[in-house]
Specification:
Blueprint lengths: L5 H12 L31 E6 L14 H10 L4 E3 L6 E3 L2 E7 L4 E6 L13 H13 L10 E8 L2 E6 L4 H6 L17 H6 L7 E7 L3 E6 L13 E6 L3 H9 L5 E2 L15 E4 L4 E7 L9 H10 L2 H9 L3 E3 L22 H10 L7 E7 L3 H16 L3 E7 L1 H10 L4 E7 L6 H9 L1 H4 L5 H11 L4 H18 L2 E7 L1 E5 L3 E2 L15 E2 L1
Helix pairs in contact: 7-9, 8-10, 12-14, 14-15
Length: about 525
């Protein structure tokens, strides 16, 4: 992991850290557990269309610009990858590759492509296209670091792709299930990169019928998709509506069929049978510490902050109870998730005692920076500030615009920052690796133990080996607190009775090709 280039991972972390989710609502209840739509077991039927609302647009069709969750959800619907996430989000399944074999001794993954693959424009899709795409991923500014084990590719025949690695990385295979590991034509089919991603061609279940940036994406069935029975829908429309109240009005009037992420304070306004709850999501909500300067450089101070955050009280105030208390510093419900059996204790008296052991001087202001653009983030900041003040920390709460917050965090110009980071793939490894690359999510603490644990996890051959490596990391995070995990928040989708076949992974992707209009 020490070979990782950090610039791309830093960019990814910065944007994910400041993403809010809403909170403060009633128990969403209703809907099936685990993120499945409440449409029953009726037989899927082909045809029709659905309209889904989302708060933010995609970052464009170029995977190197992928930051928003909506981008990871949408890209593979047009440009499928070699593998796709399983329904439970803990493994990968065949995508364009019908099978694969990881050879630990040779340090290779050999993929066998499905026979007769074509892009949506009718051009054959071969291993040369897949090899070109792997090269794009490796060079990516945003996430090239997460493909760092890959050293090159071989294409012994049109259906065989051999991925060569510096180590027998199992993380690399799982990471290929994220939404940006997409396959495109070699040399962009003779077009420039910019032109290609303006009008992308892929081998996914849908094609782009139209795209109005910031407003609307219209996808239509790809008649050349490798599974001739999918997708079920003729058309899938995504509309960007930033105002959650406007989203709700459109959903209630049936001008839209679903909302991808409902702020939890609006949960009570959605009928229980129309709620799909992901509990908890593979997201960590917490307080991120600048340990490169005082007072955050003092472990006793970091312990005091952790003790001051009464998780139950915080979750009720911020999320309306729609979150699980954080039991670790890595995301839950993905491959490799494993707690350390550690307890993140809370208690105001314990916090005061720990604060007294620290170098913090009473009355010294400690800046807590939060995103000012959502009621959720400001409420979370106010709640965290109140808990810290109860413990004796003089908090200066700064509510900042997102870009200002991102810039200050990148420069280390803060004491504490409130936010989230979440998996975008079926493995704990993406956040695990991100923590190493960003120095503990910008804490500035040495990452030797975490880095060594990641390397062991990366080449683990069994669940037991993977779990042990993750537990080493979880124990180090608990003992050193580069950041203070507070909650694993839920996510809520609003789904009308018309929407069938929706299954949502813990990292909030879903196979749109299996959606159908009931």
């Amino acid at each position: 992991m020490a070979r990782m280039r950090t610039a791309g991972a830093v960019l990814l972390a910065l944007n994910l850290l400041v993403a809010g989710c809403g909170g403060g609502g009633a128990d969403p209840g209703g809907g099936p557990p685990g993120g499945g739509s409440p449409g029953g077991d009726a037989t899927p039927r082909r045809g029709g269309s659905l309209t889904i609302l989302r708060a933010s647009d995609i970052d464009g069709w170029d995977p190197d610009k992928a930051i928003q969750l909506s981008t990871f959800q949408t890209l593979p619907q047009v440009m499928e990858g070699l593998v796709v996430p399983s329904a439970d989000g803990r493994s990968v399944e065949p995508g364009l590759a019908e099978s694969w074999k990881l050879d630990a001794k040779a340090k290779t993954i050999t993929f066998t492509l499905r026979p007769g693959l074509t892009f949506s424009d009718g051009r054959p899709l071969t291993s040369a296209d897949a090899a070109f795409s792997v090269g794009l991923w490796r060079k990516g500014l945003s996430m090239g670091t997460l493909y760092s084990a890959i050293t090159g590719t071989d294409t012994p025949d049109p259906r065989t792709l051999v991925v060569r690695m510096s180590r027998a990385s199992t993380f690399t295979l799982a990471w290929l299930g994220n939404g940006s590991s997409i396959v495109v034509p070699k040399d962009f089919g003779g077009r420039s990169r910019a032109d290609f991603f303006t009008r992308p061609v892929g081998a996914g279940p849908f094609v782009v019928a139209s795209y109005q940036p910031g407003r609307r994406i219209v996808l239509e069935r790809n008649p050349r998709y490798h599974n001739p029975g999918l997708p079920y829908l003729d058309r899938l429309v995504y509309e960007v509506v930033a105002d959650p109240n406007q989203q709700l009005l459109r959903f209630q009037s049936r001008q839209a069929d679903a909302i991808e992420a409902v702020p939890l304070d609006l949960a009570a306004q959605i009928p229980r049978p129309e709620r799909v709850v992901v509990h908890p999501s593979a997201t960590i909500h917490g307080i991120f510490v600048n340990a490169a300067r005082k007072p955050g450089s003092d472990l006793h101070f970091r312990r005091a902050v952790s003790l001051a955050i009464d998780r139950a009280r915080y979750i009720q105030a911020v999320f309306g109870g729609l979150a699980a208390p954080a039991t670790g510093g890595l995301p839950p419900r993905v491959q490799g998730s494993a707690g350390c059996g550690c307890v993140y204790e809370t208690g105001v008296e314990l916090a005061r005692q720990e604060l007294a052991r620290s170098s913090y001087r009473p009355g010294t202001k400690v800046e807590l920076v939060v995103d000012a653009t959502t009621p959720f983030s400001t409420r979370a900041g106010e709640t965290a500030a109140a808990l810290l003040r109860d413990a004796g920390v003089e908090v200066d709460l700064q509510k900042l615009e997102v870009q200002v917050l991102v810039d200050r965090q990148a420069k280390g110009d803060y004491d504490l920052s409130l936010g989230e980071v979440g998996s975008v793939s079926p493995t704990v490894g993406d956040i695990f690796g991100l923590i190493v690359a960003t120095g503990g999510l910008y804490s500035g603490l040495p990452m030797k133990t975490i880095s060594e644990a990641f390397d062991r996890m990366d080449v683990a051959r069994t669940d037991e080996e993977r779990t042990e490596a993750v537990r080493v990391a979880e124990t180090w995070i608990h003992d050193n607190l580069p950041y203070i995990p507070a909650a694993f928040p839920d996510r809520l989708f609003a789904v009308s009775p018309k929407v069938r076949g929706l299954t949502v992974t813990p990292f909030l992707s879903y196979p749109a090709q299996r959606l159908w209009a009931g």
